[in-house]
Specification:
The chain is mainly β. It contains one helix and 35 strands. The strands form nine sheets. Strands 6, 30, 31, 32, 33 and 34 form a six-stranded mixed β-sheet that branches.
Amino acid sequence: MNTKAFFYHATVALGAIIVLASCDKTNNDDSKQSKGAYLIAASSADGSYLLQSEDIASGQVTIVGNGIESDASTAWIFYRDKYAYSLMYRQGDPATVSAYELDAEGNLTPRMSQYQMPSRYTTYGSFGDYIVTAVSVTRQDETPGLAFNFLDVKNQTITEKVIAAGNFTGNGETANLSGILEVGDRFFSGVCTTPAVNAGGTAGTVTEYPDSVWVAVFDSDLNHTVIRDGRLSYATGRYRSGYHTNLAKDADDNVYVFSSAYDSRTTRPSGVIRIMKGEDRFDPDYFFDIQSAANGRHLYKVWYITADYFLLQMYNTPNQTSEALWSILAVVDVTKKTYREVTGLPALDKITSIGATPYAEDGKITIPIVSTDEYPHIYVIDPATASAARGLEIIAEGATAVGKLTY
């Protein structure tokens, strides 16, 4: 494994940095007090910004004279409660990475200017001491491979490792991965197979097996086990070259494998099955047909909230997965197998985007929403009632992510 550190000396433009006001919160596991700040990724026609706020349930924050000017991030990853990572997708070119943290006084600051990954990415997540990205590639011997980038959050270096991807599931096709979900000392990823070498989202490469779902379970050395089930189609939300994870775990490390049933040829519904903690097989007794409960709507993305609740981003039109309209949010209880669409959000025809990175705490989940008739807001969703309350107003044109860091 060859370790490469890419340090760019480009200067990150700094706006006026907000001095953090304390936001004390008692940890449920002990009496230790921590200070922290919520971070919001916002944008305008002139640039992208990372803002701080004491509160996301109310108030207002603006990009004018505040925060840090950041790269036009494609994805945000909040690593534990320590670092915020911005990943910039550059189509066929290697991705660039920026990282941020709170200093000892609670001021938001970049960890380094910028660094570059050896390759692009189509999916991402965190595992152990690393931010991990993956993409399908063609190896030097012209065989299909999976390239993983391991971003060491402590040392700020990148390690690349490439493994074989041909006949990955035993069906003769090439593997593409969807999601990096840490579970104990392993990580889980949905597997989408395509006939083409270096598929990586390339148009026209469609699987011959749309009625199967595969999950790969990796250890830290990328040794892996692949498990299959025939009750769902492959587990991913698709948009262009992106593979958006359909995997999520509950507080007990049971892994729920959702499927958007993206492939129009599948005979399987958009639904969820599960892998119980410590198992390397699907639970044969668990199945939830979400599409039927949602009157024909397919899911696009999923996030865990608390207890048995998960938040789903749904397609607007029933039995449709080709449009880029996912303006409906819904709460599912995976034990009771209930589906409820969230109330209290802007009108469906007013929503222009829903943030890709929400943040869950204290039994609720918060998510940025942009609509046509007001500034973006953070909405606080209570899963017990499937209702949303309008929270922090963001004086900007766009908002894509919310998270929290402590110091």
